Amino acid sequence: MKIALDVMGGDKAPVEILAGAYEALRVGAIGADDLLLVGDRERIEAEIATQGQKPVFEVQHAPENIGMDEHPAQALRRKRNSSIVVAAKLMREAKVGGMVSAGNTGAAVAAATLLIGLLKGVRRPGIAVTFHTAGGPCTLIDCGANIHCQPDDLYTYGEMASKYMTGLHGIQRPRIGLLNIGEEDAKGSPLVQDTRKLFGESALNFIGNVEGQDVFSGRCDVIVCEGFVGNVVLKVSEGLGQYIAELFASQVKDHAHQNGGAIWKEVARAILGRLDYAEYGGAPLLGVNGAVIICHGRSDRRAIANALRTSKRFMDADVNQHIVEGLAGGPVLPEPPAATTGDAVPGGVHP
Amino acid sequence: MKIALDVMGGDKAPVEILAGAYEALRVGAIGADDLLLVGDRERIEAEIATQGQKPVFEVQHAPENIGMDEHPAQALRRKRNSSIVVAAKLMREAKVGGMVSAGNTGAAVAAATLLIGLLKGVRRPGIAVTFHTAGGPCTLIDCGANIHCQPDDLYTYGEMASKYMTGLHGIQRPRIGLLNIGEEDAKGSPLVQDTRKLFGESALNFIGNVEGQDVFSGRCDVIVCEGFVGNVVLKVSEGLGQYIAELFASQVKDHAHQNGGAIWKEVARAILGRLDYAEYGGAPLLGVNGAVIICHGRSDRRAIANALRTSKRFMDADVNQHIVEGLAGGPVLPEPPAATTGDAVPGGVHP
């Protein structure tokens, strides 16, 4: 199954989006037959020529574009030939299995819910963002797909992110924490307390309530929260990372002449690279009947290439199949597929 | 009016708490007559002798201690001779005007609400934490005093933090942002949307919805949110700061021999000092009829000294009087007092 790449979405579209497609091909994250470019055909062909590349990918014409600030549901209705709507319809018709977009996140979520359809047992999809921590990757779900949640929605998030961490990161029985303002059982809102009971009665590897610092502590592999809180956590982390990067840059400027700039730059890269969520391959919208990967609006070619890799690995690992089985109380996941234990993904041609 | 210092509360009590009192005296943040030490008299006197200090501060005996994990309301009832309860009662009787505690936060909030009493017009107190940003201090309220809020509680938070920023940081007409998951008016939960309307109709300097990254962007002086979200933001920031500090330490270790350790340490201090909330003088519990400053449980002497400074400046600037006037639709704050324009606080003896 191919991956539909929304060439028109994002602050740096179409230049960096297309460059990302060729970057993914170059590093073997995808094969040429894995990708379907969705967007304005003329602009795509012109930009490919400008970049000095060969037109190796299939193109699906979609002349309209949904702006970053447009109202999601309205835009879906009005712009039926937009890249997001066209890609979502291809997915509904099972003509593609994956979709990568750096466009309007709300529109991507709405398209997934209204046009593609959700997995059996899922009422609300959730955006899962993976943070680097001292103890390995930690996935926070939901980072803003929905702000009206019931306890069983939060439970579903935990089940879905758990299967995602097994499928893509090879983590068996991921440790799931519930984001709260204290670890004691009695802490938190009714939503959190009722969700804790659901997790406690489940077969999932639930470690109990966790606090904000645990996003980076390495104590758990999955942290569940409702979308308002998750979105704030994501953006606070981005804002603090950006602030630290600026502090660091000014310090490097002040001191580099004393110590040789090369080492400073190496250190800055080592530290700030850990905070650069673009490196981590986009955020899956879990619960949708497909491998939908949402990218930051400011994504560059590297971020797009990584998101394409994530979408392909998501399909190869049958994450959605495992989610449906998990939600149905089905069998426990078998050993993870070999491709998920490292970053190397088999390239080559996939039908 | 004196400040009651809870000598028994905190991970490093009583050693660092008492050391903080003497540090505050040494740097002129307070005078000897400004302080009342509340705790076990024998332990206090022994520790002062151990530290080689003179017993210059008045002591109020309070032999019991509320542990960091005790249930707040139960502990208040059971431990009537605990340092927090004794300090709160002294404040209710107007025998002290300020209170600093690094003990059980929930107990301090409960004591403030149940024993001290709230300001006229305030239904719920809020914890206000000030973050350093590229554009100056930014105060986030509420960081976890309450998780059950109505729109008018959030509005009150904005009014209170605004007066606090004027009184302590000399910021006229502080810019107030409402924490949301998008800037558009239609975004967010009903709580946030209804609160936005209240701010929009007020005379406060409301700049509209802001997002998580704005805690560090310098766009606003005050950010308002409900306590669950604020607590998570505070702890995520602490966790990320800690993680970056560890990354930095390992890089410094790897590279210091190549570049001379002194400069590295200087840079680390310059960057990480900005993330060290201990430097910022504790978090006022706004809305209480007194200058109650809550400190992190792991506070050291420097944090305690800064919190004592904050408590004194809070009283000197008549912040609570301005809050009450603001909530009553009273007069706009006059020019800020001279003491609030910098970090230098007049020391000396205050009755």
Task: Please describe the structure with a list of short key phrases separated by commas or semicolons.
alpha/beta, 15% strand, homodimer, 11 strands, eleven-stranded mixed beta sheet, globular
- List how many beta strands of chain A DSSP finds: 11
- Can you give the mean pLDDT of chain A? 88
Regarding quaternary structure, what we see is: homodimer
Q: Compute the gyration radius of chain A: what is it? A: 20 Å
Assign a percent range to the helix content of chain A.
Answer: 40-55%
Specify which chain pair forms the largest interface: A-B, 51 and 51 residues
SSE pattern of chain A, N- to C-terminal: EHEHEHHEHEEHEHEEHHEEHH
| Outline type of chain A | globular
Please characterize this protein's 3D structure.
The structure is a homodimer of 351-residue chains. By secondary structure, chain A is an alpha/beta fold. Helix content of chain A is 43%, strand content 15%. Chain A starts with a strand and ends in a 24-residue tail after the last helix. Residues 330-351 of chain A have low confidence and may be disordered.
